[in-house]
Amino acid sequence: MMGEFDAIRPYDDAEVPAVLARLLSDKAFLATLTKFRFPRLARSFGWFLQPALARKLRKEFAGIDSVATLQDKIEFYVDHTIERATDGVTYAGVEQLKSGTAYLFLANHRDIVMDPAFVNYAVYHAGLPTPRIAIGDNLLQKPFVSDLMRLNKSFIVHRSISGRREKMAAYQLLSAYINHSITRDGQSIWIAQAEGRAKDGDDRTESAILKMFHMSRKDEPFGDVIRSLNLIPVSISYEYDPCDQAKARELYIRASTGGYAKTPGEDDISIALGITGYKGRVHVNFAPPVTEQFEDTKQLAAEIDRQILTGYRLFPVHYLAWAQWSEADPQLQVPQASELFGAEELEKARNEWETRLAGCPPEHRPYMIQQYATPVRNQYRLKAGLALP
Questions:
Q1: DSSP state of 201
Q2: How many domains are contained in the chain?
Q3: Do 308 and 320 have their domain in common?
């Protein structure tokens, strides 16, 4: 019997061996992996390396017959990647998560793969089950990517549907799945607060996403549905964004031409750079679950924004960018970076920041500065009791 959610749900334990077998004989997957593991040799010796890598992986993943054992296996690689590409990950608020309770983690969105990966990392290391992850179908152009993501507890958000009726049906199904996962399966969910990444550093919650949570339970009051989902606003702060130059370029092109068209494979490049690029320090903050009764999406969005923006950790680079930002509001009581950070820490940040700016064409630089300065504006406006612009 075909289940109601089969088109979007993650794979279950019974499907793991067959999907792993399919992946390990997928030429596109093996070619991508070879290129990632052996960037220099892949071009000339790919024909030799791919079968060898497939054999090694078959041996390593033999006998894996559940999602949990697969995640235990992958955790080693995730930790290794995090250690190589960051100066350490800290998290706050994990201690309030209760074993046996499912949560709806609603997070700001800066990086395609690493945002949910860092939430997973925090939850996994706290000894709790990892959440199911919402991922847009625009990122699943290759069958192996879809297999890989659905093996790792991802479910599909159909974004590339154009017809209004089809869109509504897709949102209805998504809403039903999220509610079913939390209230029936007892499985947490991770989803971004907005459809695309916040390329200008301005993290805001889209009301449409909050409305979608309620769609499949229209006969119940909005506030009750939200409370039943144990919604936790999550802030992920990267000291440095590996994709900051690409984002600045896109913002510049949009501002100067009125639009921006992605080139084929651009998302793949963003994903690879986001995973392997240097991030400095990373901080993940879990706010308390939303327990207040909100009557509509606008009120709830404002509260989630407040939690995410005040929970966002500002690093020295954010203050350095603020000091250079042409749109910085002089009325806001923002201290100098030197008042908050030690000389050594500040010197390191200044060197890194100047190198990043120098690598950016002059016309893109204002957009690079904006990305890092905007979280400062948002947090200090909230501290001053002012509305967000």
A1: S
A2: 2
A3: no
